[in-house]
Amino acid sequence: MADDEDTDVPLIPELYKPAALLPIAQLRDQLLYTIETFPVTIVVGETGSGKTTQIPRFCLDAGWCADGKQIAVTQPRRIAATSVAARVAEELGTPLGQRVGYSIRFEDVTSANTQVKFVTDGLLLREMLVDPLLNRYSIIMVDEAHERSLSSDILLSLLKKVLRKRDDLRVVVSSATLEAERFLDFFTPDEGEKVHGKSKEDYGKIISIEGRTHPVEIQYLLEPTNNYVERAVDAIMSIHTSESPGDILVFLTGREEIDDCIDMLSDRIADQSPNHQKLLTLPLYAGLSTEDQMFIFQKAPPHTTKVIISTNIAEASVTIDHIVYVIDCGYVKLRTYDANLGIETLNIIPVSKASATQRAGRAGRTRPGKCFRLYPKTVFAQLEEATFPEIQRSNLAPVVLQLLNLGITNVVRFDYLSPPPSSLITRALDLLHSLGALAPTGHLTKPLGTRMAELPLEPMLARTLLCAATPAFSCLDEMLSIAAMLTLQGNAFVSHDGGKKQLDAARRKFAVAEGDHLTLYNVYEAFVKSGMSVAWCREHSLNHKNMVKAVSVRKQLAHYLSRFGVAASPLSSSDVLRVGGTPLAERIRRCLTAGFFAHAARMKSDGSFTTVDGKTTLWAHPSSVFFHRKAEWVVYTEIMETRGKVYVRDLSAVEMEWLVEAAPEYYRVRDGGRR
Ligand SMILES: Nc1ncnc2c1ncn2[C@@H]1O[C@H](COP(=O)(O)OP(=O)(O)OP(=O)(O)O)[C@@H](O)[C@H]1O
What residue stretches are annotated with the Helicase C-terminal domain (predicted)? Predict the structure, then answer.
């Protein structure tokens, strides 16, 4: 939380200069009238027209926070929530965390004075667990709703319900053109029905904002390429040598491609004459700490061109000053859940037109720009209009758990914007049931199910953590550290000089035969013992900021548990090395099995793994202890598909008996399939 200073600062009209040049400025009065009159306003506008930064300012100025209520603006991604909050705070001349703040998972930069709060959509959903009617807000703006992120879809459904109960709440949905009518239809009452005296016609309205800040010229390749990373490097070099100066933003699909691109680029730069304008390459992907992500917003040093190489996380709502050129590979890594196999895979697929437009729109925000699409124009014409809704391709267990906790027991007939396939819901219910979160009545079990819903962790990890406190496992202290490290999503280690060998060597120093979770635990412990030292992290190829983040996450998780009245035994569990004759390391692995039994695999003679049902071959990620070592059975906490191979990360060796013990029903019901 930020400090509570600045309590009585009035709205500062002299600082309030709604960037008069932004297209949205002309629609200010119309927008405010619509928001005042209609419960729901759908705003459609070009990228950079001012929706995200200006609408909250207009509403603030119009008195929507006068009675102590707040305005919330949701974003699908952390980087958008944090950077836009910083921008709006700057525009209003207030320190970030005061009148304008942000809140993302494990990071709350708001105070009692906060009036405009940028949040990730998932976080606002979580807030509903404690404040189901979101009473503290007068306006909720769901930004980038056309992206159809899982959380924003669910949020829209819940907001529709809240609006039926609160006639003082206003919902603003910002969307790309194509989806606007659909959103309006979703919210408005049926023909002949009235809500708070309002009929279909006077319940909601679409406002279109014409025009954009600066022009963006789009260029295409004449022929398709079969190596867009290489083409991206070519494009960067050609901009660097032939175009007028300006920073470059490149969209690739994932971290590996980003690393490859940076490696290739540094080889090419090495060949250049030293008096040439320098290139500064900066990676950007979700696994970086917030601080590292914010690095991309810093101005490049003199005579230096900044080249940001990013996944789609910089695609929407983000303004990076000085970006003149955007290079778009035309692909995105999309998470898809296969309900039959029960695994999540990451597939690289062509972007949608909406995404391509958003990417191009990262240029032309503070000056005219150019966008180079690494595919022919004919390919653009064939792209899907919008991204396939996440709710129809996701593991729904976390969301179903939250809906159940909100008292929505009939999750099949819930009012979804796009109903998910029933197989996904069934699978989610099945998993929650086997995790012990769901009672036969269809309600959450108490306390396990409700506690799992409250913990900001996915259900399997939540259950693992809750089990860790039970006498049989007695490893809460250790599991708290492991859970905190897992939230770093494989980004504890970093190569300070770019070398993969150095990274492997660093990992090996902490590795233990039992697997990656205990290895992560060792890393955490050693970091804390080092006094959280920066130098120590450097020496061991660890990302200091991420490690500090893990310490903070661990504290927050411990706080949740103490609120539940769950605590480690007074003797630190590390001191109780053997409980009931079971050594600590084994208890930890048994405990992991209690949560991750659905993520079990058996090693084959060639070192790959097969899922319990024998249907899928999995490979240990190179960062795993089991990339080299042998184990018969393992549980894994992360699964991803890269270049046609399914990799599992964070593995621990377990015994088959533990799996059956942990989930007898799960393994029996699926018999024939699973054992
Ligand atoms: N951090 C910043 N630095 C400089 N200018 C900025 C910054 N943030 C916003 N702007 C200016 O404000 C304009 C509007 O930004 P805003 O994010 O409100 O647009 P938007 O309509 O929400 O766009 P999008 O849908 O692409 O996110 C930008 O085009 C840019 O000119």
Answer: 232-407
Asked whether residue 419 is domain-assigned, the answer is: no
Assigned token pair, 361: 């729109």
Same domain as 192, residue 224: no
**Nearest ligand 1 atom to alpha carbon 317:** 27
ipTM rounded to 2 decimals: 0.97
642 lines ligand 1 (CB under 6 A): no
Residues 237 and 203 in one domain: no
Q: Whose CA is nearest to atom 2 of ligand 1?
A: 319
Domain presence at residue 436: no
Single out the residue of 468, 503, 504, 493 nearest to residue 483, CA to CA.
468
Give the residue, out of 59, 146, 365, with the most ligand 1 atoms within 8 A of its beta carbon, to mutate for a pocket test. 365
Q: Among 162, 183, 187, which residue's Cα sits nearest to residue 44?
A: 183
Cβ within 8 Å of residue 18, ≥6 positions away: 25, 28, 54, 57, 58
Q: For ligand 1, is residue 394 a contact (CB within 6 Å)?
A: no
Q: Give the chain's domain count.
A: 3
Residues 6+ apart with CB under 8 A from 617: 604, 608, 609, 610, 646
| CB of 262 closer than 8 Å to CB of 279 | no
The 3-state secondary structure of 94-115 reads CCECCCEEEEECCEEECCCCCC
Cα–Cα distance, 580 to 386 (Å, whole number): 56
- Inside any domain, residue 237: yes
Task: Domain of residue 652: give its range.
Answer: 455-670
Q: Please give the C-alpha separations between residue 509 and each of 238, 284, 520, 523, 539, in angstroms, as whole numbers.
A: 42, 28, 11, 9, 11
At 621-661, the pLDDT tens digits run: 888 989 988 899 999 998 876 667 888 999 999 999 999 99
Q: Are residues 482 and 541 in the same domain?
A: yes
Residues 185 and 223 in one domain: no
> Could you give phi then psi for residue 585, rounded to 5 degrees?
-60, -35
Q: pLDDT of 463-516, one tens digit each?
A: 999 999 998 899 999 999 999 999 988 788 887 665 677 788 888 889 999 999
The Cα diameter of the chain in Å comes to 74
What is d(CA 170, CA 166) in angstroms, rounded to the nearest whole number? 9
Domain endpoint, select from 390, 415, 440: 390
CA 484 to chain centre: 16
Among candidate residues 338, 358, 390, the one where a domain is terminated = 390
Examine the domain organization and report whether 232 and 202 are in the same domain: no
H or E stretch at 327: strand 323-328
H or E segment to which residue 323 belongs: strand 323-328
Taking the CA of residue 86 as reference, the ligand 1 atom at the shortest distance is: 1
204 within 8 A of 42, measured Cβ to Cβ: yes
Same domain, 178 and 251: no
Written as six digits, the tokens of 533 are 């030292």
90 Cα nearest atom in ligand 1: 1
Handedness of CA 346, 347, 348, 350 (dihedral sign): negative
CATH code of the domain containing 309? 3.40.50.300
Q: Does a structural domain hold residue 407?
A: no
Compute the distance between CA of residue 270 and CA of residue 153 in angstroms, rounded to an integer: 47
> Do both 126 and 74 map to the same domain?
yes
